[in-house]
Design goal:
191 residues; mainly alpha; 3-stranded antiparallel sheet; 3 strands; elongated
Length: 191
């Protein structure tokens, strides 16, 4: 392409293909009347990719249209490659089914977690819920019957953090209560 103050010329292998009078208006497409349909199809905002249409078709009726559209918009705005994310989402639909993926997409959209890996993680968590662990059983049956009082951390915090409470942390000097012996007793010592 070459442009000067009066014209824009398109060349192919050093041969002029077409020349148009130069327009200084923004967004002006030369020759648009001849190629308008083709140009509209090539603009990414004017059409959806085949993968996007398939993804939206799978989720049609299973989740709100604004959720599916918003999720695709969020994935596109993230730093991830949209085509790869769509292919991974379509693979998840093959593995888990459209209903499960639609639910996971809705949860991911609500959490603003955009990406196929987030949806896959939600699906794995739904498919394999955690089983509750059995209570610890001790050898002594009397210990298994012990019941502790329920703790209230709010009451504990209120007790510890009470600003009106007097500080009883004054340093005190106390003597040892038992004699200190550095060496262990031997059999010859007098008791």
């Amino acid at each position: 392409m070459k442009a000067d103050a009066s014209s824009v010329t398109v060349y192919h292998r050093y041969q002029e293909i077409v020349s148009y009078a130069r327009s200084w208006r923004r967004g002006k497409t030369f020759g648009a009347e001849r190629f308008e349909r083709e140009l509209a199809e090539q603009r990414p905002a004017a059409r959806r990719s085949q993968a996007q249409r398939r993804f939206l078709d799978f989720l049609d009726g299973l989740c709100a249209p604004d959720v599916a559209e918003g999720y695709l918009r969020g994935v596109a705005d993230s730093d991830r490659v949209l085509s790869r994310q769509l292919n991974e989402l379509l693979e998840l639909i093959r593995q888990y089914g459209p209903e499960a993926v639609a639910g996971a997409v809705a949860k991911a959209y609500a959490a603003r977690a955009f990406g196929a890996d987030y949806v896959a993680n939600i699906l794995r968590q739904q498919q394999a819920p955690r089983r509750p662990q059995p209570p610890l059983r001790l050898r002594d049956p009397r210990l298994n019957e012990l019941v502790t009082d329920p703790l209230s951390l709010l009451a504990y915090d209120g007790f510890i953090l009470d600003s009106g409470k007097e500080c009883d942390d004054s340093p005190r000097e106390t003597g040892p209560t038992e004699p200190v012996h550095d060496e262990p007793p031997t059999g010859d010592d007098d008791l």
